[in-house]
Write a structure and sequence with these properties.
about 290 residues, alpha/beta, two-stranded antiparallel ribbon, about 25% strand
Amino acid sequence: MNLQQLRYVVATAEHRTMTDAARSLYIAQPALSRAIRDLERELGMTLFARSGRGVVVTPEGRKVVTLAREALGAVSQIAALAAGPSNAGAELRIASTTALQAGLSRFLVPKYNEEHPAVRVTPVPCDGREGVVNAIREQRAELGLTELPVPPDLVGHPLERQEMVLIAAADWNLPNPVPLTRLHGMKLILPPAGTPRRRELDQLLAGLGVIPAAAPEPDERVGWVGAVRSGQAALLGHRGLSEQAMRAGLAIRPLDPPIRRVIAIVHARRRLSTAAQDFLAIVERGSAA
C-alpha cells in the first residue's frame, strides 16, 4: 500500500465513477481500475462495488476511505512542519501555466511584495493545468495559478472569471457574436500536439462538438499576431489578449454561447506556510473587492 493508492481510493469515493475519478487524477481509467483492484487484493477486501455505470463504497471501503483521508492529511501536516513561523528570508514557489504567467508577475507578485518584501517569490513555469497540479503534488511549488476544476486533493480559491474570445483578421467578416458551430473546421492556432495545453483545449472543444483545423504555431505563441493578421488562422484566447489584438488591428469576437473559465490559486490540502497564507489573504481581499 502506498500514498498514491490512498489518493486513488479517496478520489474514487468522492466521484463515484472510475471515469470521473481518473479524469480528476489525470490518469487513464484502466490504470485507476487496476490500482484499485491491486489494493483490494492486497487488503483482502472489496472497497467498491459496481452500481449501474458507477461504483458505490462498501461498508469496509467506507472505513478505508476515512482512514485514507486521515493518513493523507497527516502526511501533508508532516510535510508542512518544515515551514517556519517567520517570513524573513522565506521563499514562496508558485506554479503557473504559461498563459497566466504574465498576470502573476505583473499584478499578483508586485502586490504581495509591497506587503511582504522579505519573501522571495519564485515562479515555476508549467505547461498547462496538468503541469501545475503535478508541481504542487511533487512539492516543487506550494501554490499554483491555473483554471478550475482541479483534482479533489487540491483546494481552489477563485481569483477571476475569464471569457474566451475569437481573434481573427478584420477582413474575415465574422458575425458578432460568433456561433460556436462556426469554429468547426475553422483553421485555429493551437498549442503543439501532445502537450497538456493542447489536450485540455481538445477536450474542451470536443465537449462542445467542435473540431477545428490546426494551424502551425511556434512555441509559446511567438508570432501569433502576424499569423492572424495575414489571415492564415484565427486564435481562440481569453480577453486578456484583446488589448494586444486591437493594437494590431485584429477583430475580437465573443462566442455564442460564451465559453468562460475560472482562474484560481490552488494548493494541496495541507497546512500552508505563513508566506503562502499571506499570499492567499491578498488574493481573497482582491476577489472580495
